[in-house]
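Task: sequence design from structure.
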């Protein structure tokens, strides 16, 4: 099967994978069209949700009175109120682009993406992965081929983009590369490490088929975990 054939954007298998990697243009437009008042919209602490959306009703000195999305009226210290990003940043791919990079906005972005099964999100050079606890069709050969040789900005966030970047740097600079995979117990470190190795095995095998040399097939044997 040719790589060009594999990457047909209308391929039903690839289309199914894309549902778990990015929003459609229609979904993005709908999200971004939400009403928003930048002077009033904020996040306030909530014992259950960590943070909930609220609207500033009044500011007096160091105190702010808000109405929360649950309908409660609260008066808090200014420091406990976090600014909300405009809707154009809803479910954004890279949280380094957020205007307000506070705890509430990061949590909100990751939470909304996760609700839509978008488990990978960039934060600058890092790729945040949330454990989906179910098999998603985002690690197939076709998805691997979609990421091969692409710039990070050309494709949706994925561990494969990070792996491909390391692979390309290794080929270009002839230097060892390292990836740090960290998180609490059960976060998905082992699972994601396996996906990185799988990626290297696929791209090395594809390179061999393309006649780029047999040496590359050995690459996945040299990954130290
Ligand atoms: N991307 C994923 N897709 C599907 N299931 C996943 C994914 N990541 C993690 N899981 C599920 O979560 C379980 C725990 O993940 P994993 O073993 O990778 O965690 P870990 O961070 O290595 O944990 P520990 O530090 O305790 O070894 C896996 O057995 C798997 O069922």
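Answer:
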């Amino acid at each position: 099967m040719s790589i060009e054939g594999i990457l047909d954007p209308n391929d039903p298998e690839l289309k199914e994978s894309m549902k778990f990697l990015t929003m459609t243009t229609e979904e993005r437009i709908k999200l971004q069209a939400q009403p928003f008042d930048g002077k009033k919209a904020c996040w306030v602490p909530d014992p259950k949700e960590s943070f909930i959306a609220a609207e500033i009703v009044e500011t007096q000195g160091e105190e702010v009175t808000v109405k929360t999305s649950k309908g409660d009226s609260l008066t808090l210290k200014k420091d406990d109120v976090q600014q909300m990003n405009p809707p154009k940043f809803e479910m954004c791919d890279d949280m380094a682009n957020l205007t307000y990079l506070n705890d509430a906005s990061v949590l909100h972005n990751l939470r909304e993406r996760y609700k839509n099964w978008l488990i990978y999100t960039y934060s600058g050079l890092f790729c945040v992965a949330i454990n989906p606890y179910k098999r998603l069709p985002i690690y197939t050969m076709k998805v691997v081929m979609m990421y091969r040789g692409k710039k990070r900005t050309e494709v949706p966030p994925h561990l494969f983009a990070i792996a491909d970047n390391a692979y390309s740097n290794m080929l270009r600079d002839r230097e060892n590369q390292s990836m740090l995979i960290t998180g609490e117990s059960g976060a998905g470190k082992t699972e994601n490490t396996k996906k990185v190795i799988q990626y290297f095995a696929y791209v090395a095998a594809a390179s061999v088929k393309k006649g780029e040399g047999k040496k590359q097939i050995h690459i996945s044997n040299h990954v130290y975990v």
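The longest helix spans residues 189-209.
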